[in-house]
Amino acid sequence: MGGSDLPALNSLAAGLQGSSGLGRLAQVCDRWIYSACLCFGLTAQPQERSQFHYSYSSYQLEYSRNLLFNSGRQLDQVYQGLIDRTRNLLDVPRLKTIFGRKHRPQKNRRREARVEKILDRALYNLTVFKLHFGRLTLKMYDKGERVLRIELIVNNTAELRCGKGIEKLPAILERSQQMIVEFLGVVQAAHLSFLPAEQLDSLAMPTFRGQRRLAGVDIQKPRLRAVAKALIALAPGAHWLHG
User: Fold this and answer.
1) Cα angle at 238 between 233 and 239, to 5 degrees?
2) Smaller CB count within 10 Å for the chain: N or C?
3) What is the DSSP letter of 104?
4) Separation between Cα atoms, residue 3 and residue 205, nearest integer Å
5) Could you tell me how far CA 147 lies from the centroid of its own chain?
6) Is 89 exposed, middle or buried (0-12, 13-18, 19+ CB in 10 A)?
């Protein structure tokens, strides 16, 4: 990370979302295909005479976002707490929301319908949190001492339902970014709290007051988050307390 020219990389990535960037990408593919590959089958004159031309499409894709922390200790505290608070909340309905699906992936003869979450600590000092949904995989892991990477792996871009041609690349990148944002929107649970972890996790469970059953409070639900925001907005500020 220390040797990367991050502004240049961001500029290059942003250019792929426009028509001019796609044109340059197609030129790179043409230069490689026609000069290093097609020349073994057709020389330059037959190529011009036949007007032979390739069209390009994408099959596999990896899209990632890196979060840079000030210290490795801070990264470890945030990441480990985030995993502990989040993995029990990621049920099948939430996975379908993150990956933009109404139904589970269908099983066919060639592949299994894979819907699972995996926490892998097989390697020393490396924790990998994976979510599999068919041919789509979301992965989060600590890369280096201060970098937390969130990565989407698309084993077949047809799964994104945006088309596969090179002209569809902006839509593919936008859909990939949306999945990562949806994922981060779920996992950004508080990693530090003045409440014990068990007590905070048990808020969503029902309780009893005498013989009366009381519903739990699931702060992951949009309706309850809206109520919490309203209470915070209507709460008296510090200047009210000291006034």
Assistant:
1) 110
2) C
3) P
4) 48
5) 16
6) middle
User: How far is 205 from 212, CA to CA, in rounded Å?
Assistant: 14
Beta bridge partners of 63: 152
Closest CA to 82 of 134, 145, 125, 142: 142
Spelled out in words, what is the top-level CATH class assigned to the domain 57-187?
alpha beta
Bridge pairing between strands 128-133 and 212-214: unpaired
Q: Give the pLDDT confidence of 56-77 residue by residue, as tens digits.
A: 888 888 888 888 888 888 888 8
Instruction: Tell me the C-alpha distance between 82 and 188, whole Å.
Output: 7
Domain boundaries, the chain: 1-56, 57-187
**The model scores a pTM over 0.85:** no
- Distance CA(161)–CA(100), nearest Å, equals 10
Q: Where are the beta strands (DSSP E) in 45-106?
A: 61-68
Q: For 109-126, what is the mean pLDDT?
A: 67
Q: How far apart are CA 87 and CA 67, in angstroms?
A: 20
Given a cut of 70, whether residue 148 has pLDDT beyond it is yes
Beta bridge partners of 120: 128
Task: List the beta bridge partners of residue 147.
Answer: 68, 143
* Angstrom distance (rounded) from CA 188 to CA 203: 17
Asked if 67 contacts 96 with a C-beta cutoff of 8 angstroms, the reply is no
